[in-house]
Amino acid sequence: MAQILLLHSVYGLRPAVHAAAERLRAAGHTVDTPDLFEGKTFEDVEAGMAYKEEVGGDELLRRAVAAAAPLIGAGGPGLVYAGFSLGGSLAQNLALADERARGLLLLHGTSDLREDAATEIPVQLHVAEPDPFETEDWLNAWYLQMTRAGADVEIHRYRGAGHLYTDPELADYDAEAAERTWRVAEGFLAELDG
Hints:
Elements: E1 3-7, H1 15-26, E2 30-32, H2 45-55, H3 57-73, E3 80-84, H4 86-97, E4 103-107, E5 122-129, H5 136-149, E6 152-159, H6 175-193
Parallel strand pairs: 1-2, 1-3, 3-4, 4-5, 5-6
Helix pairs in contact: 3-4
């Protein structure tokens, strides 16, 4: 099965991330969940965003690279990068920089692409519709850029769900959309082994 690096959102390494990792482990995958916020978690998005700004995007990316490095260096099949919102943005950057990446699972978040980005990895994105952080125009441009880069992209949208609808402790939570997301994501991860 897949070896997955699962990166948390701006809320930090909360119980929902651990629960997602356990679900994926139960399906036979190996899942690492690094704590990029060094033990800090947040109850609201504003506090999490303030901490993200305090730490800085470059430092968070450095922390994500440091978390991935031992897994990449371990040999074997390439990593599947995955993440929630901010973690999805970081996972995308890592996956596009890793020529051995097996796949990219994005939950609630994407990132900019460099113009020279090139990859042939399968990519699956799950996102609320509408989503204040992943607007329609942004997603259309992102999709075009990813496919131009060579990625095999699937986008799954969940009408009426809140931004981080897979986290049961947040107001955004949508149990039906979360369950559909995990079923589709588990299928995607199983296909990477095929």
